Amino acid sequence: MARKKSTVTIHDVAAAAGVSVSTVSRVLNNKEDVAAETYDEVQRVIAELGYASSLAAKSMRSRTTN
What we know:
Blueprint: H1 10-17, H2 21-28, H3 36-49, H4 55-62
């Protein structure tokens, strides 16, 4: 039996929106180099899937806790 994934990742958002992980990252970080239509679509998918960034994952990537 396959295990159900409990959290939505940035990869899931990218796949559902039909964009790259980098594009989702740029939207999440409010970068200005994303087309308005793409920005809106990624935001819609984020809301639809219930994506929330993980503080633990951010801490591991940055090697800091604050």
